[in-house]
Each structure stands twice: as C-alpha cells, then as structure tokens.
Amino acid sequence: MSIDDKNVILEIDGLQTYFYSSEGVAKAVDGASFSLSKGKVLGVVGESGCGKSVTAQSVMRLVPSPPGKIVGGRIMFDGKDLTKLSMAEMRHVRGDRISMIFQEPMTSLNPVFTIGDQLSEMFMLHRGMSRKDALDASVEMLARVQIPAPRARAREYPHQLSGGMRQRAMIAMALSCEPEILIADEPTTALDVTVQAQILDLIIKLKEDFGTAVEMITHDLGVIAETADSVVVMYAGRVVEQADTVELFENTLHPYTRGLLDSTPILGRRTAGKFEKLNEIKGMVPSLYSLPKGCKFQERCPKAMPICSEREPQLTEINDSHAVRCWLHIPH
C-alpha cells in the first residue's frame, strides 16, 4: 500500500511477539506490519485472541516477560526502533510521547491513591512540575475530559467514581502530556451504550485538539465506521486485510472481515418482513499453540479452497488503499 513517509509517525514492520510456556510457543503476533499517520485514527479489529492487544503492548514494551518476548520485527517511532530501547529509555517515551488507555480502568488505576495524585505523577515525572502545579494541571485536565466538579473528583479514589468517570480519568491521564500517539485498547468495553458514545466523541475531540494520532483497538466495526480513517483486520496474530475505512466497508475482500461485518447487529434489519437472525462466524479461533497449516482461517471459511490448507497466502496489495491475505484475490 502506498504510504506517505512524511506523515507516518509509527511503523510496525514484521512484528513477532511470542509467549513461551510448558504447552509450547504461542505466536500471539506473527509478522504483523502496518503504519499510523500523524493526526489520523487507525482501527485495529478482530476477535479476542487475534493479537490486537499484544501488538499494542509490544509498542508500549509492556509484554510480560517471561513468558512473552518480542522475537522479531521493528517498531519505528521518531527514527528509533522501540524494540531496541532500554527500559529506562522507554520510560521517557511511555506516557509522555506514546500513551495508552486500557480496557478496564479499575485494573489500571491504583486503588490506594487519589485520582489527583495519579494524574499529578504524570506532570511531575515528565514535565518536572511541583506537586501544587501538577495538581492544578490535573484538575484542568479532568475538566477537559468533562468530569464535573474536577477539583472534588481529584480528591477521590477510583472506587468512588462510576465506570464512565474512571474511563474519563484514564483518558485525562493518557493525554495529560499531549502525546503524539494514543493507543485506545477497547476503551468502551465495560460501559453502557450512552457512555460509550460520549467516550468515543471525547477521544475524537481531544485527538483534534492535541493533533494526536490514535490507534483504536476494538472488536466493534460500528466503532470503526464512526471513528477510523483506515482499518487493519487481524486474525491469529496476522494482518489479513488492510484498507481505508470507506474502501473496506464498500469492497470487503477477506471472508473473515465479511464475517465480522455480517455479525454486526443492525437495529431493525428485516428480510421479508421478519427480523433477521444474527449471523455468526462458525467455529472458534484456533489455538495459538497448534495453528493449522496454510491459511489460518481456512477451517472456518465458507469459501475455502484446496490451496488454502496447503499454503498460507501473503498480504498482497490489491490497489493503493487495499491489501488482503486471501487466495480468492491472489493469483496462484
């Protein structure tokens, strides 16, 4: 796919992140490649276990070791390969230039410190502020993410806030140092639909205010349709389709992507006057310890051909804005 190198802020090239255990080697991410451009939103989608979160953790160098290890590939940011940086060097990048919003804020926020203390730490660590100035900046940041009575909330502990408020506090923490990249890992999973919409609108608004590039990780293609400029679809640790958002929805090529789209509920969708039964992708994601030979989706694919069980296709460009890993669209 054609890439404007001047606008690329993060480039993942052939990333391999494996987990080693008594069962064997789980290839959680196996050769993933994609890029994120300045000020854009990249959606990364797929079922649970397809490698989305491990890819994000690899970028942040938060893969637990042992058992996990980045064994190959590059993660290029600002001319540097993040996989080569020491942990001390990564601490200057993490939270300051690249930030992350995690799935469940209650497991990410420290229960024994107030929200204000935890936000203040970011300003003191990365901006060298005094405790008083850091607290004032924290209150201002809580106000920016639309938390009412921000000074009072800053004195409260995580358990005293609602789920939506905790997620807003996490967003405030992630954006406090105006990072160049924000990774949002399922940021609305545990929230009701009304709060979900508010959180997504907030992320996009703050992205525009700060000029931050966003990597939006989700299994919800509805979220992608609303927020993303381009999309990467992952399955079994591999990128299986990659395209501009409009191109992906109008010209879906990979059967897995089509399955994800068809399994998305649409309010009021009917056929012959009756509500349609929600489609599903048959079968389960294969175990990362025993992946099938050939295409990793072939056992669940309604369009599988003999070659699919013999050879794995490579990610191949179809046009300037679309690439796919599927024998249906690759000469063989």
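Above is the first protein from milestone M3; the second protein from the same milestone is given next.
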Amino acid sequence: MKELQIRNMPELPFDMSEALNQLRVNLGFCGDQVKTVMLTSSVPNEGKSFVAMQLWKQMAEVGTPTLLIDCDFRNSELRSKYGLSSTGKLTGGAHYLAGISELDDVLYQTSIPNGYILPVASAIANPTILLEGPRFSQMIETCERMFEYVLIDTPPIGSVADALNIATHCDGTVLVVRSGSTPRKMVDNSVQLLKRTETPLLGIVLNRADMNSKSNVYYHRYYRSGYYYNKEYGKTYGYGQHSVKNK
C-alpha cells in the first residue's frame, strides 16, 4: 500500500482534543452496526473537514483501523488545508470511480498507525455521475470489510446534492454546525434533507464555540451533561452534541 504524507497536522489544545475524544467515544455507543459515518455541514466553513480529520486521527491512535474517505470532489478541504501528498503520482477516489484505477491504488497508509486515507487527487466540477454509479457502492462495501470504521467527508448539504447521494450508503451522519454563524432554519433544513435519505442523524457538533459566552451557556450545560438521545432515533441511535472550539 502506498503512503500519504500529511504535512499540516496541527497539535490541539487539551480541551479541544478532549471534546473530539468524547465524540469518538459516543460514536462507539451507537453500536456495532454503525461503521460508515458521513460528516457534513449545512454551508461551507463550518469546520466539517477539521472534525473529520481529527476524529479519524483519534480513532486510529487508539488502535482502531480507520479509513477517511474524502468525497468533497469539488473543493477538497483535506487536500488543500492538510497538505496531502504522495511520493509518486497522487491518485484518488475519482480514479477508482471512473474505472481508471483499482481500489488498492487509491488507498493510502499514513504515518499514523491504523490511519488510512482515500484522498481526492484533483477537483471535479460535477462528480454526480461518479457518486451515482455502481462503483461507489462497491467501494463503500469493500472498505467496510477492510476497516473497523469508515469516515466520509462530504460537501455541505446546502451547497450541492453530493452529500445526500453519499448518505444513502452510510450508517449515519454527523452534522457540524458553526456556533453563532449558521442560522437555525438552515440547520433544521439540513436535518429535514437528511431525514429524506432515511439515514440516521447520529449527532451534532457545535464548532467554534466560545464556552465563556453568555449565548453559549445553554450549549455548555448540554456539553457537560454528556450523551443524550434524539426522540426519533433514540431507540437505536445515539444523538450527541459536542462543542469544539477550533478556529
């Protein structure tokens, strides 16, 4: 298996790292049937790729073989912000979905033990036909057999339809919301769109939260209270809310 370099992996402060660690633990409470998890947001710049990368890193570091699939083909945050590169020619998910490469050619191991990435090699203006083709479902099914967890970073739900196509292949979704920025109506609209896919909403991450702000006292109490359940999915799936203060 080829190796992928991650040139820009920031060290997180303790409180941020612990919030992400709690998210990792709570995902484990969702049960063994939840293996493939999509991470998305309502609009750009809410921090979904940051949460996806850091959650992937924490899962791998505790010994869980975890694959992170970059499905943001139009504008990959992972490739641009984390400086993903390979010693040879970088090939990614689009190469496999288009039938140019085999799956083994686009799976990369990293310097993080148990951490693997399926990257985006270059931007694609309209990946819809690739996401709706038979090779996408084959890719997900094969990866589920190879790894204990598969995390998928997608474009925002409110921008393009890609995430809704991807959601139908996942066991659940984590929605990232930027504190003090994303309107409640937009978040609610994202939740309603996800319901149409019949994919459980596993949890919400409140990102860039100022825990000392009076407006976030409510969220602070919720974060400290730990794990709770959504009424609709409560019998089967956990619905956790976590605050992460990245910038």
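Note on the second protein: The first strand starts at residue 2 and ends at 6.
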